[in-house]
Write a structure and sequence with these properties.
By secondary structure, the chain is mainly alpha-helical. 80% of the residues lie in helices and 0% in strands. It contains 3 helices and no strands. Helix 1 packs antiparallel against helix 2. The chain starts with 6 loop residues before the first helix and ends with a helix. The model has no long low-confidence stretch (mean pLDDT 88).
C-alpha cells in the first residue's frame, strides 16, 4: 500500500478539510475572532499530525524496502523515534 493512500492519513486530512469548511462558515457568519482562531489552531494541529503520520509511514516503508522486514527490536526502536517526533 502506498503511504500516500494510507487510510489513517486520508481520514485525518478529510476531517481537517471538513473542519476548515466549518471555519469558513464561521468567518462568513462573523463569529468571534477568538473562537475562529481556536478552531484554526485545531485544524493546523490536525494537518500537522497527518504530516507526521505520512513522514513516519514513509520512513518505515522505505526502510523495510531497503533492509527487508524489520525484527521486533528494530520496530520497537522505530516506535521510540516515532514517539519523540511529537516534540518537533
Amino acid at each position: 500500500m502506498s503511504h500516500a493512500n494510507n487510510p489513517d492519513i486520508l481520514n485525518r486530512l478529510k476531517r481537517a478539510q471538513g473542519h476548515l469548511s466549518k471555519i469558513v462558515e464561521m468567518v462568513e457568519e462573523g463569529r468571534d475572532a477568538l473562537v475562529v482562531a481556536q478552531q484554526l489552531q485545531a485544524v493546523l494541529k490536525a494537518v500537522d499530525k497527518a504530516k507526521t503520520v505520512l513522514v513516519l509511514h514513509h520512513i518505515e516503508h522505505h526502510l523495510e524496502e531497503a533492509t527487508g522486514p524489520l525484527p521486533r527490536e528494530a520496530r520497537e526502536r522505530l516506535a521510540g523515534i516515532a514517539e519523540i517526533t511529537k516534540y518537533l
